[in-house]
Design goal:
This protein is α/β, with parallel strands linked by helices and 347 residues long. The chain has 2 domains: 234 residues, QueA-like (3-Layer(aba) Sandwich); 92 residues, Thrombin, subunit H (Beta Barrel). 20% of the residues lie in helices and 28% in strands. It contains 8 helices and 17 strands. The strands form 3 sheets. The protein has a 9-stranded mixed sheet with strand order 2-1-17-16-14-3-12-13-15, covered by helices on one side. Strand 9 and strand 10 form a beta hairpin.
């Protein structure tokens, strides 16, 4: 995994989004020539061609981070990773969950903790019971006992699950900015961040240019932030995530390829969904160098953490040496990294 490491100064990690979504920079990387050029995100319109199909992930981030208080007064953070009564969060009751607890030792099976309202005060009659532990991951199984429908309570009192490298508490503005403008299907605990740069106006310009847009859903889970700790990339195991690819999107992709146009994936999650051999269900597809891409011709993506599965996917798509050279250029040129950072277009 040392081949997928790079140096990044801490001040390059974006802690807040740009003032306007489309204000981000765009590094355009050409796989054929091994070259790149600096641009602005709205330049994406001219970089794509009429007839290309832009595929986006319409998952919607929900406020998955809850806080609860033990009888001792200690506070435990709970990240709702996935519902246990249905794979698709839109159909799940929202009552039973697999969750990550921090500190984990403060969330023991059999305990009942009082949930805290969004303002940090104890919520009357809002309780979470830790019902079990997942042996393979250490995650907790839990059941919510709430005064009213579980999803209503979660949406009202949960916190935006900002990634750990954003070193601040979530703010009210994150509810809008840590969400794509086309988010539709509730279920992600992390945003498909390549899509954060799009505005309705930019999408309209793409449509006017003759670029078709298609949607799919992949609900981003905690595995997105799980580093590869194995010495060899092939020894890592991917977490499963829920994916749904409508037939209309599969047809749009097939038509584009038949007529010689490009399929442009917005984000690594969209790549995983398109490359998975399923229209709906769980995918644990692990894309790393050596993968033969069947569906994707170009990729819009943010800059990713060293030694991460997301960086491995991008390296598989464009070549490890080219990507790391481009990353070094981005570091030297002051690009902003990670979820609220700048973007890259690989053609």
């Amino acid at each position: 995994m040392d081949a997928f490491d790079y140096e990044l100064p801490a001040d390059r990690i974006a802690q807040y989004p740009t003032q306007r979504r489309e204000q981000s920079r765009l590094l355009i990387v050409d796989r054929q020539t091994g070259s790149w050029r600096d641009a602005e995100f709205p330049d994406l319109v001219e970089a794509l061609a009429p007839g290309d199909v832009l595929v986006v992930n319409d998952t919607r981030v929900f406020p998955a981070r809850l806080f609860a208080r033990r009888s001792s007064g200690a506070v435990v953070e709970l990240l709702l990773a996935r519902p246990l009564d249905d794979g698709d969060p839109e159909r799940a009751s929202g009552q039973v969950w697999e969750a990550l607890a921090r500190p984990a030792k403060k969330a023991r099976p059999g305990e009942r903790l009082t949930l805290l309202s969004h303002d940090g005060t104890p919520a009357p009659d809002a309780v979470v019971e830790i019902t079990g532990t997942r042996e393979e991951s250490g995650a907790r199984e839990l059941e919510l006992d709430l005064p009213g429908p579980p999803w209503e309570w979660i949406l009202a009192h949960g916190h935006v699950p900002l990634p750990p490298y954003i070193d601040r508490d979530d703010e009210s503005s994150d509810r809008e900015r840590y969400q794509t403008v086309y988010a539709a299907r509730r279920g992600a605990i992390a945003a498909p961040t390549a899509g954060l740069h799009f505005t309705p106006e930019l999408l309209a310009r793409l449509e006017e240019r003759g670029i078709e847009r298609a949607t799919l859903t992949l609900h981003v889970g905690p595995g997105t932030f799980r580093p590869v700790t194995a010495e060899r990339a092939e020894d890592h195991t991917m977490d499963s995530e829920w994916v749904a690819v409508p037939q209309a999107t599969a047809d749009a992709v097939a038509r584009a390829r038949q007529r010689g146009n490009r399929v442009v994936a917005v984000g690594t999650t969209t790549v995983r969904a398109l490359e998975s051999a399923t229209h709906q269900g769980w995918t644990d597809l692990y894309i790393r160098p050596g993968h033969e891409f069947r569906s994707v011709d170009a990729l819009v993506t943010n800059f990713h953490l060293p030694r991460s599965t997301l960086l491995l996917l991008v390296a598989a798509f464009a070549g490890t040496e080219l990507i790391l050279d481009a990353y070094r250029h981005a570091v030297e040129s002051g690009y902003r990294f990670y979820s609220y950072g700048d973007a890259m277009l690989i053609v």
